[in-house]
């Protein structure tokens, strides 16, 4: 069993419990009165660049590192991310391995005006309705965890609900599947979900396979501005950063520094006007 399989097993068990407590019909009703979704595709530059976008993550712990940060006030952290110039806030809601929750999502939603990503291991439509009911604007669809049929139908439901999806890939085959599903936002996660090892070179190896007009996100492994510059120089429109922000004493300044590093890298490689 891989780490991903193990996480998904727990996700399914927790989901079954929530579904028993709140049947889908009730979640749908809640979703229908949630605030109108914010356009994360536009917030991430619409695949045209302009300025490197930072997706800043509220991440308490992880399978690879264990406890990362004691985040007593996720709303305050998200507000700091917003002040620093983040484009989107990512909230991990998986409980067992990441220490997240839908309460974190609620707190962040109420605290910021930015699009909010419900970052979870989506394996059932219920989670997409639930994300919308809790005010999320974006969901994560991990190609490795889904059949082509589920990927297509989950994307369709996400769009029907007015949200966007980040379609996450790790390999060439997964990028091809994401492109075939007509994903408009594709993430390349450089964390191997079998070994949990980070290999930043994976990003450059896959980003060039993603068609123009798609928002391309480099996910995981950002330690500092130099890593951001490398991703930006290899074609990232956005970076998704967790650990480096939650461990930093000044996350707002760090985001500002990352954005400047991305902008400089684009200027140096002549990419700032690319589509
Ligand atoms: O973070 C992990 O250890 C992890 C393990 C297994 C599946 C997913 C995992 N992380 C989810 C993420 O995608 C990251 O939280 C996100 O990309 C930020 O990564 P980082 O900046 O390296 O904290």
From TrEMBL:
Signal peptide: none annotated. The keyword Cell wall biogenesis/degradation does not apply. It catalyses: 1-(2-carboxyphenylamino)-1-deoxy-D-ribulose 5-phosphate + H(+) = (1S,2R)-1-C-(indol-3-yl)glycerol 3-phosphate + CO2 + H2O. GO terms for molecular function: indole-3-glycerol-phosphate synthase activity; phosphoribosylanthranilate isomerase activity. Pathway: Amino-acid biosynthesis; L-tryptophan biosynthesis; L-tryptophan from chorismate: step 4/5. GO terms for biological process: L-tryptophan biosynthetic process. Keywords: Amino-acid biosynthesis, Aromatic amino acid biosynthesis, Decarboxylase, Lyase, Tryptophan biosynthesis. SUPFAM superfamilies: Ribulose-phoshate binding barrel. It comes from the Bacteria. This is Indole-3-glycerol phosphate synthase. Belongs to the TrpC family. It is an enzyme of class 4 (lyase). The keyword DNA damage does not apply. It comes from Arthrobacter cheniae.
């Amino acid at each position: 069993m891989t780490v991903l399989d193990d996480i998904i097993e727990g996700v399914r068990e927790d989901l079954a419990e929530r579904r028993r407590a709140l049947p889908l019909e009730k979640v749908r009703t809640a979703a229908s009165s949630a605030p109108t979704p914010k356009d994360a595709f536009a917030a991430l530059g619409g695949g045209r660049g302009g300025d490197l976008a930072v997706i800043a993550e509220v991440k308490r712990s992880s399978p690879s590192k264990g406890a990362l940060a004691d985040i007593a006030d996720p709303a305050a952290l998200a507000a700091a991310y917003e002040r620093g110039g983040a484009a989107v806030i990512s909230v991990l809601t998986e409980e067992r391995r990441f220490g997240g929750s839908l309460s974190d999502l609620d707190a962040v939603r109420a605290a910021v005006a930015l699009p909010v990503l419900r970052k979870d291991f989506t394996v059932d439509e219920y989670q997409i309705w639930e994300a919308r009911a809790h005010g999320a604007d974006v969901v994560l669809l991990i190609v490795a965890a889904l059949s082509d049929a589920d990927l297509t139908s989950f994307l369709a439901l996400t769009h029907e609900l007015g949200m966007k999806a980040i379609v996450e890939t790790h390999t060439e085959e997964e990028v091809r599947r994401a492109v075939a599903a007509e994903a408009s936002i594709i993430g390349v996660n450089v964390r191997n979900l079998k070994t949990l090892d980070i290999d930043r070179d994976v990003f450059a190896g896959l980003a060039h396979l993603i068609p123009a007009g798609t928002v391309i996100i480099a996910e995981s492994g950002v330690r500092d501005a130099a890593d951001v510059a490398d991703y930006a120089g290899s074609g990232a429109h956005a970076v998704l950063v967790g650990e480096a922000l939650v461990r930093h004493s000044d996350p707002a300044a760090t985001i500002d520094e990352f954005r400047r590093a991305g902008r400089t890298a684009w200027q140096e490689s002549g990419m700032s006007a690319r589509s």
